[in-house]
Amino acid sequence: MKPTKQILDDILNEVRPLIGQGKVADYIPALACVPNDKLGIAVYTNDGEMITSGDADERFSIQSISKALSLTLAMELYQPEELWQRVGKEPSGQAFNSLIQLEMEQGVPRNPFINAGAIVVADMLFSRFSAPKHRLLEFVRKLSGNEHIIYDRVVANSEMDHSDRNASIAYLMRSFGNFDNEVMPVLKNYFHACALNMSCIDLARTFGYLANKGIQPETNEFIVTPMQSKQINALMATCGLYDGAGEFAYRVGMPGKSGVGGGIIAIVPGEMTIAVWSPELDPSGNSLAGTQALELLSERIGRSIF
Amino acid sequence: MKPTKQILDDILNEVRPLIGQGKVADYIPALACVPNDKLGIAVYTNDGEMITSGDADERFSIQSISKALSLTLAMELYQPEELWQRVGKEPSGQAFNSLIQLEMEQGVPRNPFINAGAIVVADMLFSRFSAPKHRLLEFVRKLSGNEHIIYDRVVANSEMDHSDRNASIAYLMRSFGNFDNEVMPVLKNYFHACALNMSCIDLARTFGYLANKGIQPETNEFIVTPMQSKQINALMATCGLYDGAGEFAYRVGMPGKSGVGGGIIAIVPGEMTIAVWSPELDPSGNSLAGTQALELLSERIGRSIF
Amino acid sequence: MKPTKQILDDILNEVRPLIGQGKVADYIPALACVPNDKLGIAVYTNDGEMITSGDADERFSIQSISKALSLTLAMELYQPEELWQRVGKEPSGQAFNSLIQLEMEQGVPRNPFINAGAIVVADMLFSRFSAPKHRLLEFVRKLSGNEHIIYDRVVANSEMDHSDRNASIAYLMRSFGNFDNEVMPVLKNYFHACALNMSCIDLARTFGYLANKGIQPETNEFIVTPMQSKQINALMATCGLYDGAGEFAYRVGMPGKSGVGGGIIAIVPGEMTIAVWSPELDPSGNSLAGTQALELLSERIGRSIF
Amino acid sequence: MKPTKQILDDILNEVRPLIGQGKVADYIPALACVPNDKLGIAVYTNDGEMITSGDADERFSIQSISKALSLTLAMELYQPEELWQRVGKEPSGQAFNSLIQLEMEQGVPRNPFINAGAIVVADMLFSRFSAPKHRLLEFVRKLSGNEHIIYDRVVANSEMDHSDRNASIAYLMRSFGNFDNEVMPVLKNYFHACALNMSCIDLARTFGYLANKGIQPETNEFIVTPMQSKQINALMATCGLYDGAGEFAYRVGMPGKSGVGGGIIAIVPGEMTIAVWSPELDPSGNSLAGTQALELLSERIGRSIF
């Protein structure tokens, strides 16, 4: 069955009662103050149709969803062997910001979607771009077709004020020779990427290339090769939802990437990209109502990669 | 493109030079003596076609591939909440036989495909079946349509003689209250399951239900619900290849389950089941040439879940 | 100042208010039912004087204190290089029954006073003695001069009924080749050693050789060399109080060994042996009031190795 | 037996053949270039006698031995409860610069002698002193009676250039709220303390107070209380030799503190302080010949705390 406005409306109504059972991220004040009852969804099909419901056009902090964008840029800039000797492709089995495995594995992070891995990717972008923040913004504006996307400076600065754990991660990698630049400037760029403010509509359109073999629908712009598109989806499927990737695959059955701002993007390869947003998180740090909405959508439209 | 005999022949020729670069499992003598140059592949489509190449009809020890069969039986016997409170659904991020995470997580294994998880499943089958070994054999013979499938007693006994690590795992779970029966009888059943002798043809046919929404092709027998079939595939995709699940998803892009006997089964949901065999393993314990063959097949026929 | 009956009486009065603030060991029923208000102390000097207060002649389960006796026997039976290649001499920094470090360090326990280490020692005694239980009992009766010391069979059997964790430890070491005999018979001996029933008076006299350069006071019997006596004291000082060895050294300043039955023995080398008993434990598993009594005694009589 | 010049000469001759079997610290160039055949020892008795042999008056980098001095200052400045809520008193059971335990234990280091613990102590001194480097130098000059003691700036700067691992440790503690100041200025002070250049004679005299109940011999200056002196010795006995504290207690039987510059100080409470120096280290990071010299001295003069 094709997704319709009606299906999306129904699903949001069904998951809305979950609001109140999760917990809005509160490690920085700028995130803690987001109203917990926001709820939106956008489906963007490979033939360019955009179907939405709820607060689909309201912007929020995409947080770790940006890690998929940074990875895409790094895959454009670096040869596979350069990239994958510095970061792995395996699920970590540990919390997203843990240092334990990182120390035992000599400073090579398990995958690009845990903090350590995304920070290595940020370091690699920093080495190649003269103005990494500017380049990422340009990239996102192009992908989304929305020139108004900006960084939320309050969020970025707030992250920087609470950066000790990530600084610890970066210095540990540096001590193992897996970090090339000064720590603080790289972290600043990393936090800006996390502080991108985007709506479900922006996100669904931005990640269209992952559902369309690397070509952006509508604009037909080449972003990555079909192989790279498949690889990014594979990495999201095994590592994209923190320590809840297995559960997400089991329930939703789509490659996805979540952020602690409550957003999730999910891909139905060959067909569509979906973005949901609900700020309250489950214990793994993924949007509670958002995950449930994706599970229901997967069932209703009969789409799953499995 | 459809898989053909010619494509399979070509692929085996291409991967054959890898033989000599891996390492046959040698932790028990019965496995160490398997000739390292065996190489076979079988593709079984949902419309009942079987395409093969190389040693596709020669039997080998399926080892951990049996974990997907035991899980299927447990999902038939138990309610989801009964099953999933005793074993998780997340990648472990650690070696398949590690006790570290098991101790930190209070005796609940990460997933049913690491040893600890499969041993819990064996314990659950033991609690419900009066003759678990007999029932599993019956189940496999039915699925494969091959009445001649048997346990390799030499392998099973050899595993039992080298069972200390698995006994340690079982007793640790027992100390946490997550193991109900006597340890040794359960392990005996567990080792017998691992000692099933099957060919690529047997395996491809056996797992047909996972490519066909829970219904066995040809016989049309109901094995599991479409939802359960999807769930098993999801678990294989995130956890089915030991500590190489991410790499396998990245390269092959199919749910799969491997065994240290050198076999791998892989699923293209809605289309086909593939079984490969080459005894030499890579450092993660997955068949070296077998993985490469699946990667090439995925490319040639343009099939991947991503 | 010399220890006197008056000093001991005063100290027991001072520490008695701590009763109610700790927790009697309850992992087996036979220990959980010991009255929590028992309190006793015995000081045995190298010139054969025995000074006591409180319940000093009441027997209790010595539990892990027996590990120092088993180690003494193993040091008599084996060459140092044989013994110390199978068990280390370093503090573990982890819980007494953890498997994590044991797995990471290839089945060689950190020291003879954590469970894994004591089980290796039990395995070594089992290999050399035809009737290890009998020999240990003989040894203790000789050291204490008390022919009435016996094993508490209820405790020993109760431990055996709750032996899963220790069985897991033993099998893990066996999988690394650091365990030579059948697991269950060795554990049975290990649990019997822990189930020795002795009073403070028995214990103080038994361990007299550690304060007297290896020679039992009064009987002048040779037990170990002066060097071995010094070595056992050193091991107790760094590893004898579970994960509270540092705190014990800081507060009490004597080599010691504790048991979850609430007993502690402490050594003032060259002068005296002290045994205390109070069943309630602190969070590290050491007698709460017992430790405090030893701290006060150390201050009053001005004895500490530091 | 009393230590004599002859005994010290004999011991150095006996241990000299070990030179060539260890490894000079090479993580910074300034340490790697120290001649490996230096060998010195100094014994300083409580009645003010100084007995020496070999290169006892040649200065070297004291490195982690400084941690005992910084701890002494912190114990003077802070109440025990203030100090010990920020750093523990237990052996770590892990490498001196590991982050694993530190993360699991919420940023509270195991003891003041592993890097993390010493960095917390440095943070505490930084909070109280306006010029911590100056104050420490003043303190050491007073204790040693040697006005010429200085920091080796080349070593200090070289440490700062290789500070990533320690920065990672500091930021991790900061993320847990156990670090109050800016990371880099504190590390700078920490590295200067490690870069103190002192001879065996300087060290033996400096630590005289730990053998003399807190009073400096000869000058009779009060440094710490008898209780504090005992406590520092206890901490050195259980935690002072990295991951070799148990072995050191077993072989030498004295509280001690080592540094990767090859120096070790050891205390015979009530009698004397000993300092040895030989730059080659054993695998635990302690001076190979230095430890052996202390073991021989302990045997010859019949001194051990056990």
Largest sheet of chain A, order of strands side by side? 3-2-9-8-7
Whole-number total of structural domains of chain A: 2
Categorize the overall geometry of chain A.
globular
What's the count of strands of chain A? 10
Please identify which CATH superfamily of the largest domain in chain A we are dealing with: DD-peptidase/beta-lactamase superfamily
Residue-averaged pLDDT of chain A? 96
Derived structural class of chain A = alpha+beta
Identify the CATH architecture of the largest domain in chain A. 3-Layer(aba) Sandwich
Instruction: Give the CATH level 1 class of the largest domain in chain A.
Output: Alpha Beta
Write down the Rg of chain A: 18 Å
Spans of at least 5 consecutive residues with low confidence of chain A: none
What do you see in this structure?
Chains A, B, C, D: It comes from Aliivibrio sifiae. The structure is a homotetramer. With about 300 residues, chain A is an alpha+beta fold. Chain A folds into two domains: about 5-65 and about 195-300, DD-peptidase/beta-lactamase superfamily (Beta-lactamase); about 65-195, Beta-lactamase, CATH 3.40.710.10. Chain A has 15 helices and ten strands. In chain A, the strands form three sheets. A five-stranded antiparallel sheet of chain A has the order 3-2-9-8-7. A three-stranded antiparallel sheet of chain A has the order 4-6-5. In chain A, strand 7 (about 255-260) and strand 8 form a beta hairpin. In chain A, helix 1 packs across helix 15 (about 290-300) and helix 3 (about 65-75) crosses helix 6. The longest helix of chain A is centred in the middle third of the chain and has 14 residues, at about 115-130. The first copy, chain A, starts with a helix and ends in a 5-residue tail after the last helix. The interface of B and C includes residues 103 and 171 of B.
